[in-house]
Structure formats: structure tokens, C-alpha cells
Amino acid sequence: MKERGGVLSRFLTSATKIEEGEIKATLLSFSFIFLLMVAYNMLKPARDSMAPEWSDVEVAWLWTINFVFSTIAVSLYGLLVSKVKLKNVVPSVYAFFAASFVAFYLGAGALQDSTNLNKAFYVWLSLFSLFHVSVFWSLMSDLFTKDQAPRLFAFIASGASIGTIVGSTVMLLLTKIVGTLNLMLVASTILVLTIPLIAILRTAVEDRAPGTDQESSISGNPFAGFGRLVRNPYLLGIALFLFLYTFIGSFAYFELKNLMAGNDRDTNTAIWAGINLAVNIITIGIAMFATGRIATSIGVGKTLALVPLLVALALLVVFINPVLAIVIAMWIVLKSGNYSITRPGREMLYTNVSREDRFKTKQVIDIVVYRGGDVLSGWVFAFLTASLGLGMGPIAILGGFVAILWAFVGLRLGNTYDRKSPSQPDVIK
Questions:
Q1: Which CATH number fits domain 7-419: 2.40.50.140, 3.30.450.20, 1.20.1250.20, 3.30.2310.20?
Q2: Dihedral (C-alpha) 247, 187, 347, 413: value to the nearest 10 degrees?
Q3: For helices 291-320 and 324-337, what crossing angle results, to 10°?
Q4: pLDDT at 16
Q5: What pLDDT does residue 426 have?
Q6: Which of 58, 126, 171, 320 is the most exposed place for a label (fewest CB within 10 A)?
Q7: What b-and-e string marks burial along 345-381, b requiring 16 or more CB atoms within 10 Å of the CB?
Q8: Residue 335 predicted with pLDDT over 90
Q9: Three state DSSP letters for the chain
């Protein structure tokens, strides 16, 4: 079925790598992640503004709790995937999270002392921040092919940045008028709106690729994702690549937290909202109009290595001049580069694996490995600062070496993807 031409169609096919027959499914996917990120970013600044009130050790413990909780959640998700029809899995996840935020809303109104509830919300939203995006990209890698992924995924991912801008703007404009708790209900409603969109998206893709099986569950051990990860060099490479990213990101996060410790919560909320705005404005331009061309021209390997090398240079600047403005700039390079180039590139890798790996092993990597990286790097940072007394300069140098290793892993992993077809063994050469 050929899509009708129009101004938007002509613009997209000329300015991006999207082909005419892919426009409907691409825009639906774009809208899907846009809504997810609007909801998330209506809640994220409130979570981030809490962290400066806690010590490095307290935050490290919260990250440890989150790691344990995430491991349990991924196991339960594997059970869901094994027992429930695939077409119902993704809607069920978003309906569950929407209900959970309603529960937090009711709890906040009922409790006098909100300290423990704040920490529970910090942990829960940290889980949601990974889970909702991981499940989305599992669906994308299942609906789109390896040939389509380098051309479409970055454009789709730009919807996340626009959603982040909208969500952050809503927080800036309406928090004092409506209140954070009431905005939590709005975020829950937005999550519910994604459920009918999923069905429409599946129909759009199946119109062009009949035979996509969404009626069955993914059989097998619900915990198979853990075992499949350790036995598969290709998936281990993806896990290591993500782990190194979390190591860099965690160090930068702790540095920002400590540099902002002297500010009040409103100031820090405004700073984080401003950072998010800058990151996502940059991301939109790169993801919409550049990443697809970069990935198809230089290959996924060099694409995955690009941002780590830029981060290594940024960390060198932090070593020379370790002040808040420079660390914020480095954070913006890290995050905008990840959202516009590295994350879409990493998601492309999953079009080359089995469906079971997309819906089971992927969540182990995206959530358990990610949070495991948070826990390890959080405790390492606390040890380096609290026990060894290292300052920001030496830590920036350590981060620079990690970034170079990150680039090397990305290059090797992406080159394997470029050479490999889905039927070939998962061996990194």
C-alpha cells in the first residue's frame, strides 16, 4: 500500500533517509516515544532535585537497592513475556507503571513524613527510566528490519528529545501552579494514551510486512535472558559497551550532584531542567537529520565510537578546568551524543538477534547491567572521594581512559554488526 504524497512526505524523504512507504510507521513510532518521554520528564526533575539532599553513600545505597529491585523486575518481565501474547506484553507494562504513579500520588497525600516515600520514588522512577525505553526499543527492533534500523532509528529517537523538552517545559511552567503531585496524575494519563497507539503502530507495520507474529508468547525459560547473555559474545559486547557508558555517566552525575550541593532544591530543579532542555535541543537536530546519514555512510562501528571519543576530549577539558560550567558542558556532550547517536546505534544492534533476545536478554542488558554499572561506579566514586580524597581532576583522567575503552568496544562491536547477518554466529572478531 503506497502512502499518499504530501509536503511532509516530500520533506522527510528529501531531508532524511526515510523512504516513502515507511513514513506512517516511523511517525507513529516517533509519537509513541514522544508521549513516553513527556510523561517521564514531568517526573524526572523532581527526582533529580532530591539527590543533593543525600550523601554519596546514601545515593550509592539507593542505587544498590535499585539494582536488586531491577533484577527482580526483569525476571518478572521475562515471566510475562513467556506467558502472555506478545501483542499484550508492551501495553501491560505501560498500564502497570501508570497505575504505580497513581499509587505514589495517593501515598504522598496520606503520609506526614515523606522521606522514605521520596527515596522509594527515587528508586522506582529510576527503574521506570530504563524499563519504559527498553521495552519500547524491543518493540522497534521487532517491527523494523536490520536494513531499516540505521535509516529510521535515530529519527524515531528524536521524538524522545522533543518529548523531553515538552515534559521539562510543562514542569517549569506548571509545577508551582498545579503542583508536582497533580502532574504525576497527568503523567499517568499520558502513559495510558500510548496503549491504543501501540495497536495502531502494529497495524501500520503489518500492512507493509504481513506475517509478523504478535499472537503468541515467546516460549522458553522466563529467566533465559540471563543465561543467553553470558553465552553470547555479541550480546556480551553490547553489555560491556553499555556498562562503560554507565561508568562515565555515573561519575559525571556524582560530580554534578556535589557541585550543586550548596544550592536549594528549586535552584537545582531549574538547573536540571535547563540541562535537559539544552541536551534535547542538540539531540533533535543531530538525530533527525544527521545520525541516519552518519550510520549509513561510515558504518555502525565508527558511529558507536564517535561519542566516546568526544567525551574523552571533554573530560580532558574538565581535568584542566574542573568547574561547574565545564562539567555541565561535558554532561551535555555525553547525554546529547548518547541520545542522538550512541543510543540509536546501540538499538540497531538488536535487529541482528533473535526475538527471545530482543524481549528477554535485552532487558537484562538495558536494566540489570545498566543498574549494576551504576552500583559499581557509584561505590567506586564514593571510595575515590570519601576514602582516597581524590578531586575532580584525577577522576576526570580516570574517566578519560574509560571513555577510550568505551570507544574501542563500540568500534569492534559495530564492525561485527556491519559484517554479520541475523543467521550468522554471534562472534565478535
A1: 1.20.1250.20
A2: 0
A3: 160
A4: 76
A5: 44
A6: 320
A7: bbbbbbbbbeebbbbbbbbbbbbbbbbbbbbbbbbbb
A8: yes
A9: CCCCCCHHHHHHHHHCCCCHHHHHHHHHHHHHHHHHHHHHHCCHHHHHCCHHHCCHHHHHHHHHHHHHHHHHHHHHHHHHHHHCCHHHHHHHHHHHHHHHHHHHHHHHHHCCCCHHHHHHHHHHHHHHHHHHHHHHHHHHHHHCCCCCHHHHHHHHHHHHHHHHHHHHHHHHHHHHHHCHHHHHHHHHHHHHHHHHHHHHHHHHHHHHCCCCCCCCCCCCCCCHHHHHHHHCHHHHHHHHHHHHHHHHHHHHHHHHHHHCCCCCHHHHHHHHHHHHHHHHHHHHHHHHHCHHHHHHHHHHHHHHHHHHHHHHHHHHHHHHCCCHHHHHHHHHHHHHHHHHHHHHHHHHHHHHCCHHHHHHHHHHHHHHHHHHHHHHHHHHHHHHHHHCCCCHHHHHHHHHHHHHHHHHHHHHHHHHHHHCCCCCCCCCC
pLDDT at 161 over 80: yes
Residues 6 or more apart whose CB falls under 8 angstroms from that of 170 comprise: 38, 42, 183, 186
Cβ(159)–Cβ(37) under 8 Å?
yes
pTM for the structure as a whole? 0.81
Residue 136 grid cell: 519500547
Sole residue written with cell 503520609: 111
- Cβ-based neighbour number of residue 112 at 10 Å: 4
> What would the pLDDT profile of 209-256 be if each residue is shown by its tens digit?
544 555 555 666 767 888 889 999 999 999 999 999 998 988 888 888
Q: Nearest Cα to 345, choosing from 309, 419, 400, 292?
A: 292
| Residue at 376: amino acid letter | L
Q: Nearest-CA neighbor of 412 among 301, 310, 282, 283?
A: 301
